[in-house]
Write a structure and sequence with these properties.
- By secondary structure, the protein is of the alpha+beta class.
- The protein has a single domain, classed as Pnp Oxidase, Chain A, CATH 2.30.110.
- It has 4 helices and 14 strands.
- A hairpin with a 5-residue loop joins strand 2 and strand 3.
- The longest helix is centred in the N-terminal third of the chain and has 11 residues.
- It is globular, with a radius of gyration of 18 Å.
Length: 204
């Protein structure tokens, strides 16, 4: 086995290793509103849910230079955001929205991304995605040696699901096709689904 001691790695080397090992990662395509009311869209692939009663999601945002990333600043100011799913049909505009636009510019407007109103918050969601969640900010937690990363935790106030991926009482895993981030320009579609039930009772 090759061995890399963390204290010998620079930031770029550490990122390349951890982002390649922890993969594939789900993508949160996050919409927020800037002070002028323009919609900021940005993807984050350090993303998961952390509870379901109440439903809470978490994503991590890295440093944005000398100021907070626009998404973090917007969420901190307004206390809300939406998380939109990324499937193959929206991969291209999602990637384009990662470009570092000026703070007063709207990625949604510049890229022609259609939006839909939310039901419980003022921040819109992306129209036509397979799933979206409206979220109110729970808390923002600084992490990292210089507190230069932020963990953003949101409480889900409303779920939106495309009927095309809904089956009876749940999202159909055979119809829902979320993309996974590998690293750099590499993304992955969901492959074959393997069914392996957890054994009942104690093993051995």
């Amino acid at each position: 086995m090759l061995q890399f001691s963390s204290d010998t790695l620079d930031e770029n080397q550490s990122y390349k290793l951890i982002s390649a090992i922890v993969t594939p990662r789900p993508i949160a395509w996050v919409a927020s509103l800037n002070p002028e009311g323009a919609v900021n869209l940005a993807p984050f692939s350090s993303y998961t849910f952390i509870s379901y009663n109440p439903a809470k999601v978490l994503f991590s945002a890295g440093p944005g230079g000398e100021k907070l990333k626009d998404t973090v600043a917007n969420i901190e100011a307004r206390g809300e955001f939406t998380v939109n799913s990324v499937t193959p049909d929206v991969l291209a505009p999602m990637v384009d929205s990662a470009f570092e636009y000026d703070r007063n510019e709207s990625e949604a407007e510049l890229l022609g991304i259609e939006l839909a109103p939310s039901s419980t918050i003022g921040t819109p969601r992306v129209a036509g995605v397979s799933a979206a969640m409206e979220c109110r900010l729970d808390r923002i937690i600084p992490v990292g040696d210089q507190d230069d990363h932020r963990l953003i935790i949101g409480t889900v106030t409303c779920f939106h699901v495309d009927p095309a991926v809904w089956n009876s009482d749940r999202i159909d895993s055979g119809l829902y096709n979320p993309m996974g981030r590998i690293g750099g320009p590499l993304y992955q579609e969901r492959g074959e689904i393997i069914v392996r039930p957890v054994p009942k009772g104690r093993a051995g």
